[in-house]
Each structure stands twice: as structure tokens, then as C-alpha cells.
Amino acid sequence: MNGRSIGFVGGGRITRIILEGWQKAGVVPAQVVVSDASDAPLAKLKQQWPQVRAAVNGNAEAAGQDIVFLAVHPPVLADVAAQIKASLQSNAILVSLAPKFTISKLSQLLGGFARIARVIPNAPTVVGAGFNPIAFAPDFSDTEKRAVLDLWAPLGDCPQVAEDKLEAYAILTAMGPTYFWYQFYELCGLAESFGLTSQEANTGLEKMVTGAIQTMLHSGLSAEQVKDLIPVKPLGEAEASMVEMYRTRLAGVMQKIKP
């Protein structure tokens, strides 16, 4: 990596996902400090990554590192920001992993600290196949941007985007796998019950999903033409209700997370 020390304020799922992705890529930074309000996630982290320092007496140590990941949920973010603002080094970089709180709002909560980036991470980061869009505060230098981007590079794609697009990416890429994973597991289970081995079902699913996306994006066909390629649609009668669920449920989530 780039030799800078790393702090995670919050030791939950996304911190584990990032550490796991780095571990799979063989690039876990030499100095990582993680803090959390609960001892349980820190103990779990230490079991898998004994080299990681668990800060059990508050967030000050994790927040005092060179690059600090603010890895807490929006409902507690304001309180945590108030706790760590005095611990941030003047030349540190803070990377928020939460929707809703803009760079401007974060800077206010952190007492004017302005070296802030925001990332909307997604779960495939755990296998180096993430899509983690990032927005930087306006005054970031190219060197500072590279220090952050180098940390994300082993984890998948990390495109630089306009900050006002991050919440849309939260709906599409961060939460997106949850819309499909339960269906994929069910399909594989059914395929096995119909006679395929587990490996055959998994391979078939992977090829089907990859090919379906490629057809949708690269065939040159319209949406209606793509959907008409397969005449037999066993779940066709459920499509209207599923589309309505997407439009109502996800629009509601967007209203909750937008700044």
C-alpha cells in the first residue's frame, strides 16, 4: 500500500468486508487500528486479523491515524463525528462510508475539517469485485486522491463521481445485491433438487447472470426486444407486482437517505 496508517471508526460489516478484500489481495496495510462502541466486533476482528490493533477505550486512537475510515451508520454518525473531531490530525484524510451526510455537512460536524472523501462501498469488495464510487472534497490534491484510491484499487472499481450521485449509487450498487442474492440461492437449490451438482448449478448461475447482463447492455437490442428473447416466462405473472415493489420501496429508501 502507501505506508500510511489506517484507522477504522466502527468495526462492523463494512470494515470486515474491506479487511477481507485486502487480505485476499495480500495487501493488508501494516498499521490498522479499529475502534467500536462494542467489544464483540473487535474481538471478532482480532480473531481473523491478529495484526490489527483493537482500540477498546473509545475512538480517539483510530481517529488519529493518517487515513481514517468513518464506518458507522447514519443514525449515529453525527454523534461519532463530534467524538472524533479533536483527534483528527490536521494532515489526515477522512473517508466516510455512509450515505446522507454530505462532505459539507461532515466538515461542519468535524469542526471545519475539510480533507474529506465519501465512498459508497458494496459487498463484492470482499472478493475484489467491488464497485465503490468516490467523491472528494474540492481541494484534494492529486497526491492525496491517489493515497485514497490506492487503498480501493485492490478491492475492485472505484470511479470518481459527482457527490450528488452517491445516494443513487447506494440504491443501485450498495443495496443492489440484496435484491437478487436470495433468488440466486433459491435457483441453485432448485437446480440441485432437479439433478445438477452444486458445482454445475453454481457455474450455470454464474454464466447465466453474466450473459444476461451482457445481453442487456451490449446486444444493441431495446429493452422490449431483450425481454422478448425468451418466450417462456414462468414468473411472468409476478413481474408487474415486482416492478411496483421496486418503484415504491426503493423510492421510499431514497427519500430516507438523500441529504
Task: Indicate the percent of residues in helices.
Answer: 40-55%
Straight-line N-to-C gap: 33 Å
CATH class of the largest domain: Alpha Beta
Q: How would you sum up the major sheet?
A: 7 strands, mixed
CATH architecture of the largest domain: 3-Layer(aba) Sandwich
Strand order of the largest sheet: 3-2-1-4-5-6-8
Radius of gyration, in Å, reads: 21 Å
Number of helices: 11
What fraction of residues sit in β-strands? 5-15%
Derived structural class? alpha/beta
Under CATH, the homologous superfamily of the largest domain reads: NAD(P)-binding Rossmann-like Domain
Which outline best applies?
Answer: globular
Integer count of domains: 2
DSSP strand tally: 9
Question: What name does CATH use for the topology of the largest domain?
Answer: Rossmann fold
Mean pLDDT: 96
Q: Uncertain segments of ≥5 residues (pLDDT<50)?
A: none
Query: Element order, helices and strands?
Result: EHEHEHEHEHEEEHEHHHHH
Please characterize this protein's 3D structure.
With 259 residues, this protein is of the alpha/beta class. It has 2 domains: 6-166, Rossmann fold, CATH 3.40.50; 176-257, ProC C-terminal domain-like fold (Orthogonal Bundle), CATH 1.10.3730. Helices cover 49% and strands 12% of the residues. The protein contains 11 helices and 9 strands. The protein has helices at 13-25, 39-48, 60-63, 74-84, 103-109, 142-152, 166-174, 176-193, 198-218, 223-227, 239-257; strands at 6-9, 32-35, 53-55, 67-70, 93-96, 116-119, 130-131, 134-136, 156-157. A 7-stranded mixed sheet has the order 3-2-1-4-5-6-8, sandwiched between helices. Helix 5 links the parallel strand 5 (93-96) and strand 6. Helix 8 packs across helix 9 (198-218). The protein is globular. The model has no long low-confidence stretch (mean pLDDT 96).
